């Protein structure tokens, strides 16, 4: 990653840009990618990963066609794909080149990530799919979140009157929700795709069969999970060849997953929700296959065949807010991503972020996150079980009422009490404050566009890095630990918690794939992994691109901060080591260091009709952006 094409955008991001912001845009537009990457020096890397790791090379047996090296920026025609992985991005581009649309390519990319990023995604998990239909000029979503077994109660993670230790809950059958990823793929293809599931699974099936080259990030993530993986023979057989993490540069094959994809392609997702594959999942959850020599106590789960058979995705309208003349769409509850991003934008719309100093921009950004997370914690859960005031949370009136809490020279105290979206009162609160509960921090995100103008932003996950650590024997994939996204017990017994477990309930998510329209047409789309930091990452990319004038690739690369209604704000090292930290501390902010926050990807429609695909230059080893053709 030694060069960057000049940013081709020439039109302003919002009406009437100031000369100060215009100068920033011009400077950013002529920056080279090396400068963008250099701005992240010291910004940290994925947990236990090596910064600046060499890009993953193609595995030898790939029909003589080498996978391109990772590049975080691509501009051209015919469609675009951005993901964390070069093999996965290439799978999506392959489908686009063969005439598939954005939905087909998104499923192909996601399936390939299930091979090369199996600790973050796969058919053992779930996610949220946001789609812009260019023919109907409409945004729709698929809620493919995992569900709790129908036997689950609010005591799911309580033993002897006390909540389980988080680590004990994660590595257990009890944490595993009914997977939604395969159903999401089929739902999206049935509604908007142009190819069969079997056809779009072929690239991923080939990668699983022929193998991919292990990079430093994959090696390090395996090593971080080695103590868990070794306790499950099926997991160890897949990811600890010879009893050790696969070496960097070695080729890792997963013939079990290749056969599973082949079966799904031939028989459809009924094989998972009604067939032998599902029976294997249920058996694994109810009787986790633990090494007899292991000393780990692994609790069983209570998933049944009926739980699988009754699973259904939800095709629903997105959340929406207008911001600086643009229309911003995200996933509706059960995810809190769309409502929380929208509320924070509505709060920030009351501040001129374009001409604010960098310290004042960050101050207002952090305070908006603090406020929005206070409201998220009180009001957002699975709408099948909770009265979620989505319209109120995303309303301009509520945003204005909450915005008045922010002062230029003072910091709010967390935990902050929520507001009342049904009766927005300036600076008003409703009920007692409660701290934000913990949420795992690893997912994966992809963005896709096609030559017809359709766009997909899709975030999928198995929750923690490595999920539950329990692989389904003979099937080649890990099962999720998504049920640990529930609150184990209320954060404050005096405050209603909408995110306690329940029968068939979806745990609250922070996933926030976002599509932004300008005059009814796609402007750009973005999303990120990172648990609860997904929301703040997406919000920061949106505001740095729209308000601060950074090109999308630079907004994705910029150092991050995350405030989630906590006493301390998390900072990446580049901000921790900058003078901005002192300026913000002088106002009253407190900080802790986080080596890496998020790993975003995005696409953008340029004024001349080209697509721009953007990914991380450094985080998680760097992402992979590609277009179908650099020329018409």
* CATH H-level superfamily of the domain at 73-317 and 443-630: Gamma-glutamyltranspeptidase, small (S) subunit
Structural class: alpha+beta
Radius of gyration: 23 Å
As a percent range, the share of helical residues equals 25-40%
Low-confidence stretches: 1-65
Under the CATH scheme, which architecture of the domain at 73-317 and 443-630 would be assigned? 4-Layer Sandwich
Biggest sheet, in brief? 13 strands, antiparallel
Name the overall outline: globular
Count of DSSP E strands?
A: 20
Separation, N- and C-terminal Cα atoms: 25 Å
Please, what is the oligomeric state?
A: single chain
The CATH topology name of the domain at 73-317 and 443-630 reads: Glutamine Phosphoribosylpyrophosphate, subunit 1, domain 1
Chain-wise SSE layout:
Elements: H1 19-29, H2 33-38, E1 73-83, H3 86-97, H4 102-116, E2 126-133, E3 138-144, E4 158-159, E5 162-163, H5 166-170, H6 181-192, H7 197-200, H8 202-210, E6 212-213, H9 216-224, H10 226-229, H11 233-239, E7 251-252, H12 255-267, H13 270-273, H14 276-286, H15 305-309, E8 314-316, E9 319-323, E10 326-330, H16 337-348, H17 358-379, H18 390-393, H19 396-403, E11 444-450, E12 455-461, E13 514-518, E14 521-527, H20 533-546, H21 552-557, E15 561-562, E16 569-571, H22 573-576, H23 579-587, E17 591-593, E18 601-605, E19 611-615, E20 624-629
Parallel strand pairs: 16-17
Antiparallel strand pairs: 1-11, 1-19, 1-20, 2-3, 2-12, 3-8, 4-5, 6-7, 9-10, 10-13, 11-12, 13-14, 14-18, 15-16, 18-19
Helix pairs in contact: 3-4, 4-8, 8-12, 16-17, 16-19, 16-20, 17-23
Protein name: Glutathione hydrolase proenzyme
GO biological process, one term: glutathione biosynthetic process
Family: Belongs to the gamma-glutamyltransferase family.
